[in-house]
Amino acid sequence: MDADAWNDVPFSYPEVGALGRGHRPPGYEHFGYRATLGGADHFATAVGDLLAGRMHERSGVRVTMTAPVLAPGVVLVQRFRVGPVVLTAPVRILDLVTDADRAALTYGTLRGHPEQGEEQFVLERPADGPVTFTITGFVRPEAWYARAGAPVSRYVQRLITHRYLSALRSREARP
User: Fold this and answer.
1) What sequence ranges are listed for the domain DUF1990 (predicted)?
2) Is 133 helix (H, G, I), strand (E, B) or coil?
3) Residue 124 maps to which CATH number?
4) For the whole model, what pTM was predicted?
5) How many domains does the chain have?
6) Which residues lie closer than 8 Å to 111 by C-beta, 6 or more apart?
């Protein structure tokens, strides 16, 4: 199923836009991770990689998008392998805010995603330090197999998140 087929699929959770309002709804696992990506000159590259879906691809996630660059309303369909199973995880971009020293992208899960919730990716270039990348969100299992294997689902979610953090690091900042 290509990304365009997901255009009319509704969100899978009622609190759509909660992260944009600074809200962390109850009943979800809340998470936040941060990494240093590299020097200030790496900011534009990291933003470009995030908006073109390259962060996902470098994380081992196959992606298809309804547009060449992520923007509000664009659907991003992620596919990744867990053992012998390929999981499909469609999301829709809720918000994108960019300025000279900060870029924030937020997406929410669509029906058909194994989990429900939102995830926000924030790149920042402070005047006095290196580029940082922060991922925050709230999530809970949606599909029966995600609920039945909740510990495995949480592990996979953390694994993918850590891969995202590594995917945007400059070569100089990689361990």
Assistant:
1) 12-166
2) strand
3) 3.30.530.20
4) 0.91
5) 1
6) 9, 10, 11, 12
